[in-house]
Amino acid sequence: MKINTHIGRYAPSPTGRMHLGNVFTALLSWLSTRSKNGKWVLRIEDLDPQRSKTEYTAMIEDDLQWLGLSWDEGGTANSGNNGPYNQSARNHIYQSFLEQIYNKRLLYPCSCRRSDILATQAPHQSDGRIVYAGTCRPATEPPFPVFSLKGNTVRVWTPDEEMHFTDIICGEQNGNLAVNCGDFILRRADGAWAYQLAVVVDDAMMEITEVVRGNDLLLSTFQQLYLYKLLGLTAPKFAHVPLICNANGQRLSKRDNSLSMETLRREYKPEHIIGHLAHLCGLTESAYMISAQNLIEIFDWRKIKRQDKIILQ
Ligand code: GLU
Cα of 44 to ligand 1 centre, how many Å? Predict the structure, then answer.
């Protein structure tokens, strides 16, 4: 009999030093996992070869250790049974899952350029989301004709279907796949895997039971739930945590150095940073110094503010 343990994960892209917002996501995921005596997986999302750097992976690991956020599987040590834990080494795994969907004849090649796609965007898509108008979609419904998976940008047919999930923080969520994204890319012609496919395959194969990540990825969850369904995989629970924003209301970026771990570590102790975040999100009533370890017993998802942004004053 399979023992149903809690498995959480932190899945950073090594494209820069961690900032306070990244620390916040990692902390909540870690606390939730540790409060349930679960396992915490560190997966390195280095799908983008141009922007991902091994130096950043090393810094992320060093920052997590300095903060007291230990992991049980993954990272550069690749410990654990479900590795490799860096996405750039998992091509063969993504390929086999892509072929499963291909064999259902739900995929088609797409030759649209980004500029063509942007030109067909409806005006309300001003939040940066791309909804594919279906320019290259075959004229008949699936099953679609066979084509070469190699060398083509590959899209998956998405139905005009309502999706639903209950987020641990944001509550009931409903979205329509056709309105939210349309047919989306699973792999680009140059061989680059889409985040949506990789994240679903990895979370399922690494047996993740709870995904904690920034609120900016809330809408992606509908696409991911669709892929879970197509692949016959069990979806985890999701908690989309508020984004930490600067005083102008903009989310922190890896290019903004003022709240990067490099600066923070020069000025503060880990207990300052953890205590400050715990107070900002509603876990504690004031910002006293506390270690991540000592926060475990205070942690409760019900205390976390239900909002999409936390503005730093
Ligand atoms: N790799 C993504 C990031 O660093 C996170 C993706 C996820 O947690 O699903 O923002």
Answer: 9
Ligand 1 neighbourhood includes 240 CB (under 6 angstroms) = no
pLDDT, one tens digit per residue, over 221-251 is 999 999 999 999 999 999 999 999 998 889 9
CA 243 from centre of chain = 13
What strands, in cross-sheet order, belong to the sheet with 39-42? 73-74, 39-42, 7-10, 210-214, 237-241
Strand 162-167, strand 171-176: pairing? antiparallel
- Structure pTM? 0.96
In ligand 1, the atom with minimum distance to the C-alpha of 45 is 1
Specify which residues 164 forms β-bridges with. 174
Candidates 90, 195, 203, 220: which one to mutate for ligand 1, based on the most atoms within 8 Å of Cβ? Answer: 195
Residue 134 CA to residue 182 CA, distance in Å, equals: 7
Mutate to test the pocket of ligand 1, among 7, 9, 13, 56 (most ligand atoms within 8 A of CB): 13
What are the distances in angstroms from CA 294 to CA 7, 8, 68, 239, 273?
Answer: 20, 19, 11, 22, 14
Position of tokens 């049974």? 81
Residue 235, phi-psi category: left (phi > 0), alpha (psi -120 to 50), beta (remainder):
beta
Buried b (16+ CB within 10 A) or exposed e, 206-232: bbbbbbbbbbebbebbbbbbbbbebbe
Q: Which amino acid is at 287?
A: A
11 CA to centre of ligand 1 in angstroms: 5
Report DSSP letters for 132-175, one per residue.
---TTS-SSPSSPPP--STTSEEEE---S-EEEEEETTTEEEEE
Task: Give the pLDDT confidence of 108-143 residue by residue, as tens digits.
Answer: 999 998 877 777 766 545 566 789 999 999 999 999
Which of 19, 46, 199 has most ligand 1 atoms within 8 Å of its beta carbon, as the pocket-test mutant?
199
